[in-house]
Amino acid sequence: MKKVKVVYFLPLIVVAILLVFFIVGLQRDPRALPSVLLDRPVPTFSLPGLPDRDPALTDPGAFQGKVVLLNFFGSWCVACLQEHPVLKRIQAEGLVPLHGIAFKDKPEDTLRWLGRHGDPYDAIGYDTTNRIAIEFGVTGAPETFVIDKQGVIRHKHVGPITDEVWVNTLRPLIEDLQNG
Q1: Number of domains into which the chain is organized
Q2: Domain that includes residue 53, residue range
Q3: 20 to 30 Å CA-CA from 85: which of 1, 94, 131, 167?
Q4: Which of the 8 DSSP states describes residue 167?
Q5: Angle made by CA atoms 49, 178, 94, in degrees to the nearest 5
Q6: Residue by residue, what is the 3-state secondary structure of 29-98?
Q7: Which residues pair with 44 in a beta bridge?
C-alpha cells in the first residue's frame, strides 16, 4: 500500500525539482558567458590588415605596457552597428587603444562598412580563417575583451557595448587597470 503513495508523489517531486532549476536559471544573466581565457595571456596570433588600411593587428605582444580594448565585429552584424556609435565615442575619448578583429567577413565588405559608418579602430586585424575568433572563444559578434598591461585578458563582454556598459563596467575597469 505504501508503494502506491510514492508513485502518486513522484511526478510532483520531479516537477518541484524542475521548477527549482527553472527559477535558478531565470536569475542568471544570459550574456554572462564564462570565458576560460579570463586571467590568461592573450592567445598568440598574427593577422593581416585590411587592404589599403593600416595598421594591421600583427602582434599581440604590442599590447604589452598598455591596457587595450579588443573588439570582434563584422559588417554582417546588426548588433555591431548598434554599438558602433559608442565605439566611436570611446575612441574619441582617447582613454584606451581600441583594436578590432573583423571576422566572418570579406575584406571589401568590412572596408565598405567602415567607410559608411566610421572607423573607430586604432588597428584592425582580418581573421581570414576565423581561427582567432575560435581561440578567443568568441560565440558571436560583437564581443569585446579588456586586456591589461601585461597582455592578460581581464574581462569579456558579450553583445554590444552600450553607454551604460561603458560607464558602469568597462571604463572603471580600464581606469583601475591603467592606475594599477
Answers
A1: 1
A2: 31-179
A3: 131
A4: I
A5: 55
A6: CCCCCCCCCCCCECCCCCCCCCCCCCCECCCHHHHCCCCEEEEEECCCCHHHHHHHHHHHHHHHHCCCCE
A7: none
Q: What is the pLDDT of residues 137-151, one digit of tens each?
A: 998 899 999 999 999
What is the pTM (predicted TM-score) of this model?
Answer: 0.79
Predicted pLDDT of residue 45: 85
d(CA 23, CA 91): 40
Beta partners for residue 41, in sequence order:
152
In our burial notation (b when 16+ CB lie closer than 10 A, e otherwise), range 9-25 reads eeeeeeeeeeeeeeeee
In a domain, 3, yes or no: no
The rounded distance, in Å, linking the Cα atoms of 93 and 4 is 71
Instruction: State the Cα–Cα distance between residues 159 and 141, nearest whole angstrom.
Output: 7
Q: Is residue 174 part of a domain?
A: yes
Which three three-digit cell numbers place residue 130? Answer: 576565423
Q: In the prediction, which pLDDT does 157 show?
A: 95
Q: Which amino acid is at 20?
A: V
- Domain of 58, CATH number, reads 3.40.30.10
Any domain includes 20: no
Sign of CA dihedral 34, 62, 64, 87: negative
Q: Is residue 158 part of a domain?
A: yes
